[in-house]
Amino acid sequence: MNFTLRPLERADTPACARMVVNSVVGERYGFTAERMTKTLTEALDAGGDLFVAVQEGKPAGFAWIDPKGAFSSAPYLRLIAVDPQIRGSGVGAALLAEFERRTEAVGRSWCLLVSDFNLPAQAFYERHGYTRCGALPDFARAGVTEILMMKPRVPGTP
Ligand SMILES: CC(C)(COP(=O)(O)OP(=O)(O)OC[C@H]1O[C@@H](n2cnc3c(N)ncnc32)[C@H](O)[C@@H]1OP(=O)(O)O)[C@@H](O)C(=O)NCCC(=O)NCCS
Questions:
Q1: Ligand 1 mean position to 122 CA, how many Å?
Q2: Where are the alpha helices (DSSP H) in the chain?
Q3: CATH number, domain containing residue 53
Q4: Which of 38, 53, 103, 128 could form a disulfide with 61 if both were Cys (CB 3.0 to 4.6 A apart)?
C-alpha cells in the first residue's frame, strides 16, 4: 500500500477522530466524533506531536506521541488509530515505526498503555516487540485495566 507520512493538520482532525470513534476503544469509552475532533484540535493548538499517514490525499491513520510522556523521561504513544477500512494493511506498523524513529534518542524504552479488552492492539504491539510491564486498574475508566507495555532500545545503549 502506498502512503506518505506528514504532520497532522487541523483539516485532518474530523477524519482522524472518526478512526478512533469507530474502534473498540471509541465504542467502549463512548467517544463522540465531535469530542474527539476537539481533543485532537486542542492537542495541535498546544503544540502536540501528531502525524498522519496519507493515502490518495486522505488520512489513512494517525498517531499522537509525547517524546517524554512516560514519567517525564521516556517516549509515550498517546494514541494511534487507522481507518477501519484499511486496518491490517501495514499503516499501523508504519506509524509505530515513525513513533520509534522520532524518539530514538529519548529515554531507554518506548512506552504505551493499552486497554485490557483491546486484544487486537495488544497482539499488534507484541508483534512489534512490546511486552507487558504493568497493570493500572481503573486508570482511565472504572472496571478497565490499562496495560503498560514497553519496548527497550537496543540493550547496552546509554
Ligand atoms: C491497532 C491498529 C492501530 C493497528 O493498525 P493496522 O494498520 O491495522 O496495523 P498493521 O496493518 O500494521 O498490522 C495489523 C496486523 O493484524 C493483521 N490483520 C489482518 N487483518 C486485520 C484487520 N482487519 N484489522 C487489524 N489487523 C489485521 C495484519 O496482517 C497485521 O499482522 P502482522 O503485524 O503480523 O503483519 C489498528 O488496528 C487500529 O486502528 N485499531 C483501533 C484503534 C486502537 O485500538 N488503537 C490502539 C489503542 S492502544
A1: 10
A2: 13-21, 24-29, 33-45, 91-102, 119-127
A3: 3.40.630.30
A4: 53
Q: Residues of 63-72 as b/e, b for ≥16 C-beta within 10 angstroms?
A: bbbbeebbee
pTM of the model: 0.94
Whether residue 78 contacts residue 95, with contact meaning beta carbons closer than 8 Å, is answered with: no
Please check whether residue 158 lies inside any domain of the structure: no
Q: How many domains does the chain have?
A: 1
Residue numbers of the domain that contains 64? 4-152
* Alpha carbon of 89 to ligand 1 centroid (Å): 8
> Do the domain assignments include residue 157?
no
- Per-residue confidence in pLDDT tens, the chain, 158 aa: 689 999 999 999 999 999 999 999 999 999 999 999 999 999 999 999 999 999 999 999 999 999 999 999 999 999 999 999 999 999 999 999 999 999 999 999 999 999 999 999 999 999 999 999 999 999 999 999 999 999 998 766 66
